[in-house]
Amino acid sequence: MTWIAIAVGAIIVLVLAYGSISEILKARTPAVTIGEAAIMANDFKARQSYERWMTELKIYQYQNYITQLRAQQPEATATETNTEETAPATVNDSTDALTEQLQYTVSNLEQQLSPDFTNVYAGQVLDAMIEEELVRQEAVKRGLRVSDDEIQQSIELTVGYDRTAATSGLTDAETLTDTAAALGQPDFDEVYEQFNTNVLKTAQFAEKDFRAMITAQSLKQKLMDELAGDIDRAPDQVELTVFTVDTEDEGLALKSRMNDDGEDPAVLVEELSQDESTTSAGYDLPWLPQGYLDVQFGIELEEAAFNTPVGKASQPILGTGEQYFVIYVKEHEERELSEDLLAQAEQQAYEGWLSTTKGELVKYLDWETAIVTE
After folding, report:
1. Category of 86 on φ-ψ map: left (φ > 0), alpha (ψ -120 to 50) or beta
2. pLDDT tens-digit readout, 242-269
3. What is the pTM of this model?
4. What is the dihedral of CA 329, 333, 338, 340, to 10 degrees?
5. What is the C-alpha to C-alpha distance for residues 328 and 255, in angstroms, rounded to an integer?
6. Using CA atoms, how far apart are residues 114 and 106, in angstroms rounded to an integer?
7. Is the pLDDT of residue 169 over 70?
8. Shortest CA distance to 211 belongs to which of 374, 50, 56?
9. 301 near 293, Cβ under 8 Å?
10. Topology annotation, domain 236-335
11. Rounded to an integer, what distance in angstroms lies between the CA atom of residue 59 and that of residue 51?
């Protein structure tokens, strides 16, 4: 019996040891490879825990805002509740709108952490880690770097430290900590230690991994600026008035009124706005380069926009919604992109690079076994 007990005990120990070794090996297996680099399962799990905890903290913060807003609202009296008169908009109306918006945000965040969205949430975290690694690799190729101060500022923003307030009135002879103390504010070390204790240690996310994440996010902007150097900042653009009508005959009539009769497109826009038809309309578009009209309206409309002479209207063009479009070209020239269009072009250049590079370098392995559920 003694030998049987010893044998059973040995088997149990071996099973437990095998289980432990198996878990350790799983944690050290790659979830994804990115060229020669890899994201290990244990690093992926740690990042998920960090992101989930940060989301929970956001929910808690927004819920506190909602509680404070409700506490500031006076209770409506019976007279106010029963009145039939329409009261003008008040501060309470704005507070109600803000509270509703915050509740909507909380609901969305809670949904992200729900069991039904576990795989989606984990996939988003993994995509972020992949993007950061791709940025690091591309930054090395291009010789891009971020300074220690740039990284420090990004860390301060992440942990909620207000450098601007702390450095208000700072002189050359004073330090950041001295000024913060004089203003009754905690210094950065104190704020960071709270973040380290309440976030990083709670989520079991290593400080070196946190700093690597922040560094990659800072490098991303450097890379975006680099990729933006290839953008044509003064492309060929058109300024248009677009008309939509139900039939080709209506479109031909509009074209004739502008091209043959010389009627002002602005007058026709006003006329259509008063039309009982809910589908006929006219509206102006801002300066746009090639590529934008194609996405929204189709290639035929874009070709008409760039090939119709200035001061003329195009032939009616059948759109995807069974409506006809008539394009009136107000202006056509090479000109600087607007700030909004330039920002869009920069984002598109970066996303194009990211999509192409992911397709070439990223290989997904058994990453779903490393998903964190809570």
Report:
1. beta
2. 999 999 999 999 999 999 999 999 999 9
3. 0.76
4. 50
5. 8
6. 12
7. no
8. 50
9. yes
10. Chitinase A; domain 3 (3.10.50)
11. 12
What residue ranges do the domains of the chain occupy? 236-335
The beta-strand segments (E) located in the chain are 30-34, 37-40, 236-245, 281-289, 317-318, 324-334, 362-364
In terms of C-beta density within 10 A (0-12 exposed, 13-18 middle, 19 or more buried), how is residue 158 classed?
middle
Those residues whose C-beta lies under 8 Å from the C-beta of residue 219, and which sit 6 or more positions away, are 135, 136, 139, 144, 145, 146
The pair of three-digit structure tokens given for residue 345, joined into one six-digit string = 């072009």
- Residue 245 phi/psi, 5-degree rounding, is -140, 170
Positive or negative torsion for Cα 241, 339, 128, 373: negative
DSSP string, 270-301: HHHHTSS-SS-EEEEEEEEETTHHHHHH-HHH
Per the structure block, which two tokens stand in for 249? 């005959």
Separation CA 140–CA 85 (nearest Å): 67
Amino acid at 7: A
- C-alpha–C-alpha distance, residues 304 and 297, integer Å: 11
Are 70 and 127 a contacting pair, CB within 8 Å? no
> What pLDDT sits at residue 80?
52
Burial letters for 14-26: b for 16+ Cβ neighbours within 10 Å, e otherwise? eeeeeeeeeeeee
Tell me if 240 sits within 8 A of 173, measured CB to CB.
no
Give the model confidence (pLDDT) of 312-346 as tens digits. Answer: 999 999 987 789 999 999 999 999 999 999 999 99
pLDDT for 9 equals: 60
3-state SS, residue 327? strand
Residue type, 323: Q
Q: Provide the angle, in degrees to the nearest 10, between the axes of the packed helices 339-361 and 118-142.
A: 100
Number of Cβ atoms within 10 Å of the Cβ of 39 = 22
N-to-C CA span, the chain: 44
Query: Both tokens of residue 343?
Result: 């920002």
Report residue 339 as tokens. Answer: 């700030």
Q: What single-letter DSSP state applies at residue 313?
A: B
SS3 for 114? coil
